[in-house]
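Escalation from tier 1.

The customer reports that the assembly of two entities below gives different C-alpha cells on two consecutive runs. Tier 1 could not reproduce it. I'm attaching the input and our single run for tier 2 to review.
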Amino acid sequence: MTRPIDFYFDFASPYGYFASTRIDALAAKYGRTVEWHPVLLGVVFKTTGAAPLPMVPIKGPYSLHDFERTARWHDIPYKFPDPFPLATQLAARAMLWVQQTHGADKAVAFAKAVYRAYFVDGRNIMLPETLTAVAEAFDIDAAAMLAGANDEATKGRMKLDMETAMARGVFGSPFVIVDDEPFWGFDRFEQIETWLKNGNI
Amino acid sequence: MTRPIDFYFDFASPYGYFASTRIDALAAKYGRTVEWHPVLLGVVFKTTGAAPLPMVPIKGPYSLHDFERTARWHDIPYKFPDPFPLATQLAARAMLWVQQTHGADKAVAFAKAVYRAYFVDGRNIMLPETLTAVAEAFDIDAAAMLAGANDEATKGRMKLDMETAMARGVFGSPFVIVDDEPFWGFDRFEQIETWLKNGNI
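Tier 1 run:
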C-alpha cells in the first residue's frame, strides 16, 4: 500500500499553479493519490528571510518573464494577475473548511478553481466575493464557507498545518513530498516522475 | 551568423558546475559557440539580498540534498566539497588572465579543470597552490598566472565584467543568455534547447 503524495502550494504562487495542473495526472500514472495542502509563503519567509520574487532586485523582472515563458513551454493557460502577489490566508482557510465539511475531492476541485480564477481569469482571490463565487459553482454554501474560513477552529488548523509543513522542511511552492523525499519547484517534476517509477534517484 | 551563447557561472556554484559539463555540447548541437564568463555571486548578493544556499534556514539542508540528487539524476560526478561555499575571486581572475594571455579555449579548459578540482576531487580552489597545480597541467606558467590574477588590470576587468553581467540581468549561477533571452538555472537547460531549436518559446 503506497502512501499519498503530499503537495504543498501557495495560492499566489505561479509555479504552484503550474504544478497544480499536473500533479494529479502524474500521481495517477503511477497509481498514487495526492493530498493537497495550502500553505502561506508569507509565514515561511519570516523564517527563511526570503521575499516575494517580484520584489527582489534583478531577479524580480526575470521571474515575471520566466512565469510567462514556463507557462508557454508547458502549454498552461496563464495571465499575469493584478494585484501580484496577494495575501492568501482567506483562500487557504476556505479550502481547509471545504475539505473538513465536503471532503478532499471537493476541496481539490475548489482549489483548482481558485487558481484558475487568479491566474487565468485575473480575479482578486483576496476578496471574499471572488471566493464565494467560486464556491457557489460547486454548490457550496458561500455564507457558511466564509464564516467557516474565519472561525477559530479553522485558523487553528491553518496554524498547525503550517507548523507541520515547516517541520517537514517545506519552504517554497510548489513543494512535493513522496515517500519522505522532498522536491521543491515545478522544475523538479521530472525527478519526481523518476522517483515514482523507481523508488529512488 | 549566430551570436555566441553567454554562460555565466560562479566557481563555488554546484548548479554552475553541473551546467559547465553540458553547455558546450548543447550549444554545438545547434551550431553555436559559448562564451564563458566567471562571475562572483557574493557581489550579486549584495544587490539582491540573497545568501549562499546552505546558510538559508530550511532551504539550506534541502539544497545540499538536491545537489547530490541532481548530480545522480544527470549522471555527473560530484562530491560535496569542504569548505563550501568559498571565495572565488582568485579562481575567477586567474581564468580571466588565462583568457587574456592564452585565449578563450585554454581558459575554458582551465575553468572545467578548476570545477573538477573543487566538485570532484574536493580540493580547495581558494588556495593559490590548487590553482597553480591546475594551471601547470595545461602548460601555463603558474607564477605568471598568480601575478596576473592579482594585478590591477585583471581586478579592473573583473569589476567591469561584473557590472556588465549585472546590467544584463545576471543574478545567479548558472545564468545563460541566448539571443538576449535570459535563462537562470541548470533546470532551464531544456528550455534553452527549445530556444536553440526554434528561436523562441
